[in-house]
Structure formats: C-alpha cells, structure tokens
What we know:
Elements: H1 2-12, H2 43-51, H3 75-79, H4 102-108, H5 126-137, E1 161-165, E2 171-174, E3 179-183, E4 197-201, E5 214-215, E6 218-224, E7 229-234, E8 242-248, E9 276-284
Parallel strand pairs: 2-9
Antiparallel strand pairs: 1-3, 3-7, 4-5, 4-8, 6-7, 8-9
Amino acid sequence: MRKAKLLALCTSCALAACAGDGSGLDENGRPEGESSGTLQPNFQSIQDNVFTPVCTGCHAGAAAPLGLRLDEGASYALLVNAPSVEVPSLQRVQPSNPDASYLIQKLEGTAAVGARMPLNQPALPAETIAVIRQWITDGASNNTGTGAGGSGKSRFELVELTAVSPARDEIVPGPVRDVVVTSNVELDATLLQSSVIELRASGGDGTFDSGNERAVPVDATVRSDRPSVLAITPRLAPLSADSYELRISGTDPVAMADLQARPIDGDGDGAPGGDFVLRFTVEMTQ
C-alpha cells in the first residue's frame, strides 16, 4: 500500500504546470533519482519526495514558470510568505493557513485563476495534499538543516548571503517583481531600515561605471527567519529590460549583520565584512 501511494505521488505531482511525456522516468515508471523515503509533513520530506524528483523538470532555473523555482535551495524562499504571481493578494504558502495558501488552492482545484495542478495530469492523491496541508498547518517551518538552527549556530560562523532569484549573473525573463536573497543565519531585520541595500540599473549599456546608472528605489522585507529570507521589491514598478546590480553593505558605516552584530562576509573572502554584490540581466519576453 505504501509503495502504491508513493508511486501515485511521484507520477502525478507536477506543480510545474506542464505535462509529462515520460522522459526522466526509470523502467518502473518512477522519476530517475526519486527518493525512497515516506512522505512526511515537513519541508525536507516534501522537497525530497515531491519537488526535487518531479517538479524540477520544469520549475528550475531562470525559465521556471511564473518564477517559481522548486529546486532545493530555492523552493522554500519562493514559496513561504511569497506572493502568488497569478493572484498577488494570496501567498503561495501562508504559514498555519492552508486554505489561504495558493499552492493548496491550485492542487485542490479551488483557485479562482487558471487550471488545477498538475496541468493535464491526474490530480495529486488526497493523501499527498493532506501531508502538504499538515506541513502548512504546523507553521510551514524550514527543517532543511542549513541555517535552520539560527541562533544555535556557532558564534564563529561566517554570516553568508546567497542569491536565489535571480541567481548571480543570470539572464531572466521580465518583468521581475522582486529579488530574493537568503542567509545561512537569522539577520538583524532592524538594519533594513538603514541604507544597507542599493539597487541600480545600468542605463542600458550593461555596465556600472559609465555614469549613466539609475538608482532603483526598493523596499526590503523579511519573508522568514532562522535562516532569513529577504525579498527586495522595486518600489515603483517591476524591473524591466536592463542589467542590474544589487549591493548589500557589509562595511561601515552600516553593515548588514546577524543578531550577534556579526557583519556579513559579503565578498566571500572568509572574513566578516565586504559588500554582497549581485548582478543579473532582465530580458523582456515577447
């Protein structure tokens, strides 16, 4: 019975909104590299048994539908407390409220926009949706291990940032509604009120030293903590076609830091300090 449920889960799950053609399946009809574990109501189990073996066939990389990447290292940051693109008033996953979570609405076929997911495939088994529901009901916490302990980390650990969406030097389809960056620990959110984050457009030439750069006003919010997920949102309009540079200060007079006042290792030289710099390009699709 357990094997049958797991097979049903893996063959029918496609949050990617795309139809399968049989590619990427082994001789038994299971996705290649599929996890052999039993689905549990925690994020790592859902990642291992649903997102990674099935959904990343479409929901990965710069061309992920609606910007929803479900590969490990990106999925949590782009799901939990992240606005849906189709219905921005709803979060993809609203902790403790599965009924208001757009992910659940799409899986159950109750969303007001678009078709039920997975598109053009059988609906996910009720048991599978129930497990995802339970994870959300329990608070949609992140148990992936990396940075999950937050304050329990060593006081000597470096504070590091990672670009999730867009990734470093990536070319992404526009418009871009926000830039998502994660940390390996919990950051001091009060520092976001100061001038630690700067976003610039190149002015159309793809360089940032020619004098025609344009400052882009942004708002920065914390989607989740332990570890922190930062969403940097253009204040006036989504990012249109151009090259962009995001800079998060790791140096005086004000540096982004964790709750122990340790500055980020922004430049990745193995020591606290230095600015975190992310460059990416937005291309408008036809």
